[in-house]
Design goal:
heterodimer; A: about 575 residues; alpha+beta; Elongation Factor Tu (Ef-tu), domain 3; OB fold (Dihydrolipoamide Acetyltransferase, E2P); Rossmann fold; 4 domains; ten-stranded mixed β-sheet; four-stranded antiparallel β-sheet; about 35% helix; about 20% strand; globular; B: about 450 residues; alpha/beta; 3 domains; 20 strands; about 30% helix; binds adenosine-5'-triphosphate; binds magnesium ion; ATP synthesis (chain B); ATP binding (chain B)
């Protein structure tokens, strides 16, 4: 294999299984094969392709489901049936379909890499910009007229500085392990609204940010990821099912075409690209899947879209790395993971961000990675290395999940370093008291946990009334604000206005109640007030009904505590 | 891979269940080998590693009394295949699919690769047909559906076999009379447990619909690596070729994992946690992911794997990795068992991820989801209070707190607890739940839609 390149794609054996060179030493190449290698014998041929592992980019990506190396699963199904047989392949982008291309450039234009050549309406909502490949620049010698083209039709002819002619099609390839170039990285400026209260109101994410969701099995990582894929206000979703369950992919495929995006009124599937390399599919393709996903995400970012990528689970990706590294007999680090685990994770999350693309458009990639720590123990290497990089941490908690407190986001362990960035947005879309209320309510929860410890020692009845009242309000906050069922038809998505108002009611109840208790009301009396009951079940209440009742309840709170304050 | 006879005598090393054979250049990865013993018997093996001049072979019958000089190793050029037929139903096989019930060999209708193929996710039918097991803690709070993989996490001495047998006996999908089958894979279970299952199946008439693969505690440990794969291959044939609804019971997954660990240790691989190999997640997934439904095919595979948690530790790699792959888990508790509660299901750590799609108005009852959630909240609170009382006594408790303690006790005895031959319909289960929830004043039932409270609540109004 002399002359072969690192990361070059090769075809292995008589069945021509797809593989990638991951080690080179003298004339010996180590190849990781993306398919089941059963039956391969020494002596079978290996063919080089001269190309790095790449994805196809172009119109037609949206709505597709791919395996880890971008083989289209629906198409594979029509070739080989219900089970995935090795050695089958099918092009990632449909070759026959025609797209309406409208050129943006004319003959004689000077173009730089990444420039917009023209556009294609990929869906009713998404205008797909056809971009000049990043490393090309030159003068347009000819451009196709407006019309219907396949992804392999030439649409642009370009002469570079050295006078070489380039023929450009809508289909372009990009090596997955290389970040697509940008002009400039920008700081994130606005929250990624997800409709999940504990996230948006307490531990917000931003467009272009990074977040991790660690938690033991069954704590709700996948449901969080699915909720974000469904309801977050990104333009494009790339969902990577990395080494997880087949039924979870089937679930997405079943639900997304039927669900309507609240923002665009289009089926959610039309803004989504799925990468599904489930736990029983080849491990090497699992390793590649997150790169395939993020490359597609960057591609839409470069057109100026806000893209959110979910990777469920990054731990399975790390394990795939460990498995491959073990086979290479590399020196193992902590828990058998390769020493480069931390840098691979960092490189991956580094591909998130808000940017000015080469085209001048502003776009972003937000990355949300699930982490599955063995035994639910956050001190293990994948969680720890991830924590060093990401800015938002939604720690899921087995205890909460056991009580069916969902989303089981532990409010004491979780954090968001973007809260300050989100505040101006909330001030504008909620009210100027957002930051203060959030702070007060988080402190309330903190206080609750301190009090719980005391209760464990001395029992509840010795607590001062004010503390009893704190426990009472904290219960309301947990049960009616933090709990939010993903399966409730209404509450699955909570619009920001409603989040703000729910928070405001509870906050008002807290402040006025405190005063009343100060004046002599007991916590038990407060808990018995009808208005306390009104604060329950606000989430599942239809949004319009809630909006209607909001002012009334606000006044009821004022009235209810007047007595105590008298 | 149809080569001429390739037979070698050159075993250069025996390490645990592993043989190294020299002189072979073209061993295929995963190819089946026959290891011939001097006494004329044969043991099955499989190629784990192949390079020029050498093959590493795992021997399922174990390498006890194998000898470097005399054994011959024959490479068959084929992956591990299994002959399958509908007439397997009613039969008992060894852990490597030899008939052990005195009957003859099955006449194969088809040969299938035992490692199976991954179901294309786009071809999966999402499982949502409610299976009524008749067990309240399962049906009411951790509903099982057809095509789900729902393991039982247990411990030594706990009645997991009884529970599995009871589920096998009682499970049905309401309103259907479709053909069903049970495939039972035993890995390292005792003779007594094996007899228990055979007797159970015989007495209840399930034998005729059951295929058993038995690897018992004194059978070769390495055989356990193939046993579940044989069972699942049989299950796939019955489900996807014959259109049957198959329930696969696999016991004990922990014994299976120990066999994996043994092979890994013999190969001197770098272990992940507690000596288990780093690829155990992937390996277990290659078993568990064989559960499911396939679009356009009539049958289904539902898995009920049973595993014993060493030291009752749910964070042990076997339950831990299992929980990360399966669609929930049923957890048995030693404490409830000691209290004499059967089945001793601790509902708090239990989960059925596919419950949501299997319950509700058309499938079970409209109030099901809310009731289940409320039971969880109430039971969790009861348990917390009981813990508190154990430390500081019950003086400081409010009247409401005391209600939760009453609930706790009655819930364990009347809802979780039931007789070994008692099958409760889902209606009965939910009614029982309302009996218990009705000890609370209405406004404690915060997780239940008021409309359901109006319909089902039986406590004092107001
Ligand atoms: N927001 C939610 N609302 C309602 N139920 C939830 C929510 N989040 C989680 N659940 C419940 O918890 C179950 C487990 O959640 P999920 O599958 O997301 O766990 P996970 O952390 O991804 O586990 P694993 O690591 O094993 O994949 C779900 O099937 C669902 O029943
Ligand atoms: Mg998950």
């Amino acid at each position: 294999m002399r002359g072969a390149q690192m990361y070059e794609v090769v075809y292995v054996g008589d069945d021509e299984l797809i593989g990638e060179i991951i080690g080179l030493e003298e004339d010996l190449a180590t190849v990781q094969v993306y398919e089941d290698t059963g039956g391969i014998t020494p002596g079978e041929p290996v063919q080089r392709t001269g190309m790095s592992l790449s994805v196809e980019l172009g119109p037609g990506l949206l709505g597709m489901i791919y395996d880890g190396i971008q083989r289209p699963l629906t198409e594979l199904g029509s070739i080989s049936g219900d089970f995935i047989i090795r050695g089958v392949s099918s092009p990632a982008l449909p070759r026959e379909r025609r797209y309406r291309f409208t050129p943006d450039v004319t003959e004689g234009d000077e173009l730089k890499g990444g420039a917009v050549i023209g556009t294609v309406p990929e869906t009713n909502q998404i205008i797909h910009s056809i971009l000049l490949p990043p490393h090309l620049s030159g003068k347009v010698t000819k451009v196709a007229g407006e019309g219907e083209y396949t992804v392999l039709d030439q649409i642009l002819w370009l002469a570079d500085r050295d006078g070489n002619e380039h023929e450009i099609t809508m289909l372009q390839r990009w090596p997955v392990r290389v970040p697509r170039p940008i002009r400039e990285k920008l700081p994130p400026v606005r929250p990624l609204i997800t409709g999940q209260r504990v996230i948006d109101s307490f531990f917000p994410m931003v467009q272009g940010g990074t977040a991790a969701v660690p938690g033991p099995f069954g704590a709700g990582k996948t449901v969080v990821q699915h909720q974000l894929a469904k309801w977050s206000d990104a333009d494009i979703i790339v969902y990577v099912g990395c080494g997880e369950r087949g039924n979870e992919m089937a679930d997405v495929l079943r639900q997304f075409p039927a669900l309507i995006d609240p923002k665009t009124k289009e089926p959610l599937m039309k803004r989504t690209v799925l990468i599904g390399n489930t736990s029983n599919m080849p491990v090497a393709a699992r390793e590649a899947s997150v790169y395939t996903g993020i490359t597609i995400a960057e591609y839409y970012r470069d057109m100026g879209y806000s893209v959110a990528l979910m990777a469920d689970s990054t731990s399975r990706w790390a394990e795939a790395m460990r498995e491959i590294s073990g086979r290479l007999e590399e020196m193992p680090g902590e828990h058998g993971y390769p020493a480069y685990l931390g840098s691979r994770l960092a490189d991956f999350y580094e591909r998130a961000g808000r940017v000015t693309a080469l085209s001048g458009e502003e776009g972003s990639v937000s990355v949300i990675g699930a982490v599955s720590p063995p035994g639910g123990d956050f001190s293990e290497p994948v969680t720890q290395n991830t924590l060093r990089i990401v800015r938002v941490f939604w720690a899921l908690d087995a205890d909460l999940a056991h009580q069916r407190h969902f989303p089981a986001v532990n409010w004491l362990l979780s954090y968001s370093l973007y809260a300050d960035l989100a505040e101006p947005w909330w001030e504008k879309h909620g009210g100027t008291d957002w930051g203060r209320m959030r702070g007060d309510l988080l402190r309330l929860l903190q206080k609750e946990s301190e009090l719980e410890e005391i209760v464990q020692l001395v029992g509840p009845d010795l607590l001062p009334e004010q503390d009893k009242f704190t426990l009472h309000v904290a219960t309301i906050l947990r049960e009616s604000f933090l709990i939010q069922s993903a399966f409730d038809e209404v509450d699955t998505f909570c619009p920001p206005e409603k989040q703000y108002r729910m928070m405001r009611l509870i906050h008002r109840y807290l402040l006025h109640g405190r005063d009343a208790v100060e004046e002599g009301m007991t916590a038990e009396e407060a808990a018995g007030l009808p208005v306390a009951g009104r604060l329950a079940r606000m989430g599942p209440m239809p949004h319009d009904d809630f909006a209607e009742q909001y002012e009334t309840v606000l006044h009821e709170i004022d009235d209810a505590f007047k007595g105590g304050r008298r | 891979m149809t080569q001429p006879l390739r037979e070698f005598r050159s075993v250069v090393r025996v390490a645990g269940p592993i043989l190294a054979v020299s002189g072979i250049d073209d061993a295929g990865y995963n190819e089946v080998v026959h290891v011939l013993l001097p006494d004329g018997t044969m043991r099955l093996g499989q190629v784990l590693e192949s390079r020029m001049g050498m093959a590493i072979v795992m021997v399922f019958g174990g390498t006890r009394d194998l000898d470097c000089d005399v054994s011959a190793v024959r490479f068959t050029g084929k992956p591990l295949m299994m002959p399958v037929a509908k007439e397997m139903l009613g039969r008992i096989f060894s852990g490597s699919a030899e008939p052990i019930d005195g009957g003859g060999r099955v006449v194969p209708e088809k040969e299938m690769e035992i490692s199976g193929y991954a179901i294309n996710p786009t071809r999966r039918e999402f499982p949502e047909d409610f299976i009524e097991t008749g067990i309240s803690a399962i049906d009411g709070m951790n509903t099982l559906v057809r095509g789900q993989k729902l393991p039982v996490f247990s411990g030594s001495g706990l009645p997991h076999s009884q529970l599995a047998a009871q589920i096998t006996r009682q499970a049905r999908v309401r309103g259907t009379e479709e053909s069903f089958a049970v495939v039972f894979a035993a890995m390292g279970i005792t003779h007594e447990e094996a007899r228990f299952f055979i007797r159970e199946f015989s007495e209840t008439g399930a034998r005729a619909h059951a295929v058993l693969f038995l690897n018992r505690a004194d059978d070769p440990a390495i055989e356990r690596i193939v046993t579940p794969r044989l069972a699942l291959t049989a299950a796939e044939y019955l489900a996807f070729d014959c259109g049957m609804h198959v329930l696969v019971v696999m016991q004990d997954i922990t014994a299976y994992c120990e066999a994996l660990r043994e092979v890994s240790a013999a190969r001197e691989e770098i272990p992940a946690r507690r000596g288990y190999p780093g690829y155990m997640y992937t390996d277990l997934a290659s078993l568990y992911e064989r559960a499911g439904r396939v679009k356009g095919r009539a049958g289904s595979i539902t898995q009920l794997p049973i595993l014993s948690m060493p030291d009752d530790d749910i964070t042990h790699p076997v339950p831990d990795l299992t929980g990360y792959i399966t669609e929930g888990q049923i957890v048995l508790s030693r404490e409830l068992h000691r209290k004499g509660i059967y089945p001793p299901i601790d509902v708090l750590p239990c989960l059925s991820r596919l419950m949501q799609g299997g319950i509700g108005k058309e499938r079970t009852r409209a109030d099901h989801a809310d009731v289940s959630s409320q039971l969880y909240a109430a039971y969790a609170r009861g348990r917390r209070l009981a813990g508190l009382v154990a430390v500081i006594g019950d003086e400081g408790l409010t009247d409401t707190d005391r209600l939760y303690l009453t609930f706790l006790e009655r819930f364990e005895e009347e809802f979780v607890g039931q007789k070994r031959d008692e099958g409760r319909s889902i209606g009965e289960t939910l009614d029982r739940a309302w009996d218990l929830l009705s000890i609370f004043p209405q406004d404690e039932l915060k997780r239940i839609n008021p409309a359901f409270i109006r319909e089902y609540y039986r406590g004092e109004i107001g």
